[in-house]
Structures are given as C-alpha cells and as structure tokens.
Amino acid sequence: MPTHKIGDLIATSGGLRTLAREAQRLKSLEHLLFEALPPALASASRVSNLKTGTLVVSTENSAIAAKLRQLAPRLLLHLRKSGVEITGIDVDVQVKTHKIKGEHDVTPPALPPEAIQEINRLSQRLPASPLKTALARLAARQGPGKRR
Fold first, then answer.
1. What is the pLDDT, as a whole number, of residue 145?
2. CA distance 51 to 56
3. Could you tell me the CA-to-CA distances from 84 to 21, 23, 79, 108 in Å, in that order?
C-alpha cells in the first residue's frame, strides 16, 4: 500500500479541504492578533472562531479576559490595519481541562530540620495538652528520613 502525505489526503478530500482552509484562516488571524499582544496574554489566549465579522478569542481565565476586553479597541485597529474586516472582538473564558490532584496525590513539603527541632523543644516544654500531643506527632512525622 503506497504511503501518502497527510497534506495530500486533506487536499483531495472536499470536507477536509474546507476545514483545513478554515483552520489556516484562524491561525493567520491568531498570528496577527498575537503581534499586538504582550507575550503573557498571547500565551494564555487563542482565536477560536470568526462569526459574522466578530472575532472570538478564548482565554484561560477571567483576569486575562478582562485585560483583553480592555485592549479590544486597540486590537481591532491593529487587525483592520492588517486588512482584516472585523467589526468586533468577543472574549470568552474557556478553562483548560486537566486532572486536579486529590489530597492523597499532593506531597507536602518537608519541614527543615531546624524547624523540627524547635517543634520538639516546644512540645517538651508544654504541659500535657492536645497542643503538646499534636506538636509531638508533627515532629515525629517530619523527623529525619521521614516523608509523607
């Protein structure tokens, strides 16, 4: 069976060709938009669509979205000067989906040895109490060579 380049396969398939053209158009718009944005904002946003003259930009969080909304007039001018016919910019927040670690997956940082010694000394000076017991347990758990 002969091998084909993916680009050739896309070019010969009508539906994929249209999709590839649209993806290329959005990529070009994103490149133009990112020219006018600070790198931190550009890395946290992406062009997701162009609907009836309105450019739709997705961001990772609401703080970035708010800043992009403030910059929208300047961004529109930049895009129009580049020859793109856009009447507005719509900014959406689209949080990236990723696995959130459970408590059991998170390893708490170890206390420095000096801190463990101080906790031990303090627990030895205290009268019998729940605080003394808790401090002694903490020091024992964090002792030399021990990690949770």
1. 56
2. 7
3. 16, 16, 6, 51
Task: Give percent helix, percent strand, percent coil of the chain, each to the nearest 5.
Answer: 55, 15, 30
Asked whether residue 136 is domain-assigned, the answer is yes
Q: What would the two tokens of residue 99 be?
A: 């696995």
Domain shared by 67 and 108, yes or no:
no
pTM assigned to the model: 0.56
Alpha-carbon gap, residue 58 to 68, rounded angstroms = 10
Q: Which of 94, 80, 81, 86 is nearest to 54 (CA)?
A: 86
Q: Which residues pair with 56 in a beta bridge?
A: 49, 90
Q: Cα separation of 52 and 11, whole Å?
A: 26
Q: Enumerate the β-bridge partners of residue 89.
A: 55
CA atoms of 4 and 115, how far apart (whole Å): 64
pLDDT digits (tens, 9 = 90+) for 67-119: 999 999 999 999 999 888 889 999 999 876 665 555 556 666 778 888 888 88
Q: Which two tokens stand for residue 124?
A: 């030895």
Q: Does 1 map to a domain?
A: no
The CATH number of the domain holding residue 79 is: 3.30.300.180
Q: Is residue 32 part of a domain?
A: yes
